[in-house]
Amino acid sequence: MRYQVKALRGEDELTAFALEAADAGDAASQVRDQGYTVIAVSPKAAWPAWRKAGTGRFPLVLFSQELLALLEAGLSLVESLETLAEKEQQPEIRKTLTQMIAALYEGHTLSHALQHSTANFPLLYVATVRASEKTGGLPEALSRYVAYQKQMDAVRRQVVSASIYPLLLAGVGALVTLFLMAYVVPRFSHIYAEMGGELPLMSRLLMGWGQLLDEHGAAILTAAVLGLLAATYAATRPATRQWLMRKLWQLPSVGRRLHVFQLARFYRSLGMLLRGGMPVVTSLQMVSDLLESSLRGQLGLAAARIREGHALSSSMEQYGLTTPVASRMLRVGERTGRMGEMMERIAAFYEEDTARWVERFTKLFEPLLMVFIGLVIGGIVVLMYFPIFELAGSIQ
């Protein structure tokens, strides 16, 4: 089976491997044999992996909040983790906490315990904790990560909530249209076939569809189900998602908004690491996965330029990783020495701008979608009843 492995050489050099291995442990051991420290191991499955019952994700934000509260109450790190393990009810989470406690008793750091945990903690979280260990500010780092995650979740919730009503409206419209085309139209086609007479062109086409569906309904239904399964499978493939993303990026307005949203997430993550004390180049490597593949290559070029001693603002601007507003704010951050804080302000500015755009788009898109669905359903109904209207007119 193929596995994706993220690893560190020393403290700063981040890299990723894709290799064949018998299991996750075998993949990790292969990478360790090459002198790397394994950060995370994830399978690259050919089919979507469904979660087993009772094995949910580790509640990272809740864990961070509870750990922060215990540390601020005066407990040591080990005592805090032991307290969390004692009150935990879910076996998988308790096992993860127990492994972390055992690593601490062996003399390892918390970041080391997180790296080698079976919970696969995010690289960003591990890097934040590692940076805090150098400065002795673990509570501040936890507080910063909780705030970061809450902000990202708020943006995600806003986008999802704005999408619910249009998706629901489109789903209902599709079901009504399917009911008319699959049940009502075939019955009208039988009635008009028995009546005889000449029908308008569009009505003949609609009735022809009804007759086709009535005669070959099972075959059409089977083909539709197979097509739906094929589309669902294709949607789970990374290549399909990348193709769809490329098409979205090619749309002028949507592509620009996707670019700004990715930069906002990138700046917020980078700013959090810089405020925690991580070196700039290492931080850039750790947050590179947040960017689309083409931007990831540009980030690599910008990082190489920064290593050569060039300013971060000019390097990011040269490779298209800024906007006019971001460039100005980055230069201010360089002059004041508050680059991490300035990046978080850039992210907040563009997150608010994205939220306003989503709100305006949904307010415009919802009525347009309702008009479109109304025209489709109304058109089907009119075409079905048009011959009856003509017959009524001829009788009069």
List keywords for this structure.
Receptor-associated Protein; 396 residues; Ubiquitin-like (UB roll); mainly alpha; 3-stranded antiparallel sheet
Can I get a quick summary?
The protein has 396 residues and is mostly helical. Helices cover 75% and strands 6% of the residues. It has a 3-stranded antiparallel sheet with strand order 2-1-3.
Provide a descriptive summary of the structure in words.
With 396 residues, this protein is mainly alpha-helical. The protein is built from 16 helices and three strands. α11 packs antiparallel against α16 and α15 packs antiparallel against α16. It is elongated. The protein has a three-stranded antiparallel β-sheet with strand order 2-1-3.
Helix/sheet category = mainly alpha
| Order of strands, widest sheet | 2-1-3
What oligomeric state do the depicted chains represent?
single chain
CATH secondary-structure class of the largest domain: Mainly Alpha
Report the sheet with the most strands, covering strand number, pairing sense and barrel closure: 3 strands, antiparallel
Superfamily (CATH H level) name of the largest domain: Type II secretion system (T2SS), domain F
Instruction: Kindly report how far apart the N and C termini lie.
Output: 76 Å
